[in-house]
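My current task is to audit a protein record that another person submitted. Alongside the sequence sits a line of tokens, each denoting a local backbone shape. Where you disagree with what is written, explain briefly why. This is what I was given:
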Amino acid sequence: MATTLKNLSLSNLTAHDLFKSLHIALVVADWNPEITHAMRDAAIEFLKEQGVPDTQIHLHAVPGTFELPLGAQWMAAQQHTDAVIAIGCVIQGQTRHFDFICSACADGITQVGLKYNKPVIFGVLTTNTLAQAQDRSGGEHGNKGIEAAETALKMCLLKNSIV
């Protein structure tokens, strides 16, 4: 595995004046809450550290990862929303249910971003085991919530530079 023993959540992003004006929506799956809530909390902390005001971080929960695309679409449809971060976790089980949920979620989130011409970030863990999810939500591989938040800010910077 390419990420073995690497903490990929170390960021070199520095606060930018643009971040003070951004409205960032987080849509978080309540399924596997010990994982998704750790990612949510890390993403919010990172956004605040980068200068996004607390009052401009909009948090919404959905029941599970399958519901993330619709929740993200509702948030992307809001005129004030600059970016959406979708946070979820699907852990491989004994059936193909995992494949259907992961595929539908990834496709749906992609379509929302394209439809609304806004960054809609795929902050969804798709792991084989609970231990792998824990490693990526604050464990030895960092916290993918931070990486999703960083990606949202970088995409906002990119959009701002070309619009």
